[in-house]
Amino acid sequence: MSCRALIQRVRDMLQFILRRLGLVIPTFIGITLLTFAFVHMIPGDPVTIMAGERGISAERHAHLMAEMGLDKPLYQQYFTYVSNVLHGDLGTSLKSRISVWEEFVPRFKATLELGLCAMIFAVLVGIPVGVLAAVRRGSIFDHTAVGISLTGYSMPIFWWGMMLIMLVSVQLNLTPVSGRVSDTVFLDDSLPLTGFMLIDTLIWGEPGDFADAVMHMILPAIVLGTIPLAVIVRMTRSSMLEVLGEDYIRTARAKGVSRMRVIVVHALRNALLPVVTVIGLQVGTMLAGAILTETIFSWPGLGRWLMDALQRRDYPVVQGGVLLVACMIILVNLLVDVLYGVVNPRIRHKK
Q1: Residue 110 pLDDT level (bands cut at 50, 70, 90)
Q2: How far apart are the first and last CA of the chain?
Q3: Keywords in UniProt for this one (predicted)?
Q4: CATH number of the domain within which 231 lies
Q5: Sign of the alpha-carbon dihedral angle for 135, 137, 141, 143
Q6: Is residue 179 part of a domain?
Q7: Close Cβ partners of 181 (under 8 Å, ≥ 6 residues apart)
Q8: What domain range includes position 224?
Q9: What is the mean pLDDT of residues 5-33?
Q10: What are phi and psi of 245, to 5 degrees?
Q11: For labeling, which of 100, 117, 284, 342 is most exposed (least CB within 10 Å)?
Q12: What does the alpha-carbon distance between residue 346 and residue 17 come to, in Å, rounded to a whole number?
């Protein structure tokens, strides 16, 4: 590649990245507006809910509302919220009086660990099944794979989770019902813990602690990974069928290239491009699914944290948590777009 061609390629890539970054700002503004509007449309206020059945006097209620800044006009509350966010201040929980960021980090690690395990499960199972279904198009395996993927995509997460708990945990007694580890597992806080239970139990735990963490991970990862698995199977199959019909595949077969080499080297490598994009887009789906999954399995992650905050009208936690989750989804999609632009130059030249 000549120096001029290399410079042009780098320039095209930078322009492509800048175009994608240009979409981030309006998306960020839209997310702050929607989050703020959604939280304030929910009936009730945090002061009344925190008071519970004991009740609270009108004077005390007004004082606490003013202390939290909830007595100001909505537009003023919104601009204060955005200003604080731009200065890195996501607020303080109305219940625990701990900063939203401090509460977010440990729960993010729990959700990230679960999400990574669920995605690994979906990818390791979904891509081979999709490839085999495409190679054996029209076979019983193909029809079965398509049928199961359609069922998995449309299956309610809550129902699926409860069925697995009843069958695997209650009836067969193969896995724990809930939590990240058993009550018998103890990790000293003075140790340099990562916050990822599989890693911490493997390095610092007693014999058997790691296996305990793995057993707790199995069902939540399967439940959370079911929809991404179904999508990956369908996309891999569709992409492989399209690639297998290309002229260069027929040419490779005519030259006597082995079937395995044609599938793995020539077809799969090109078929994976749209699959990579789909995997990135599944991050948002998984974070949404994590709310139900973590609730079912009492998993102390972002989903359960946000649900609890929503029930007690903890505005800073809901707004800050949703904003951080949305920023993660935007970042992942941006990275996927850039990666796809690197491996597929045609995308970079599209305006």
Answers
A1: very high
A2: 25
A3: Cell inner membrane, Cell membrane, Hydrolase, Membrane, Transmembrane, Transmembrane helix, Transport
A4: 1.10.3720.10
A5: positive
A6: yes
A7: 197, 201, 209, 212, 213, 216
A8: 106-348
A9: 78
A10: -90, 0
A11: 342
A12: 14
